[in-house]
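Morning run. Coffee first, then this:
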Amino acid sequence: MAVPKRKVSKARRDKRRANWKLAVPGMVKCSQCGALVLSHRVCPECGYYKGREVVKAN
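And here it is:
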């Protein structure tokens, strides 16, 4: 089995881990009401998708 030849320093290890982070979801403005919505999904505020009412709003 492969075994490290030398100790990996904390700085080297942490540099490698620095790019492992959460990505921001792709939010867009609803064309009907202007609320921020995840793209390609029905707006929870007004119930519209692509200019058509898909779900009755509360």
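Strands lie at 27-29, 36-38, 48-49, 52-53. Good start to the day.
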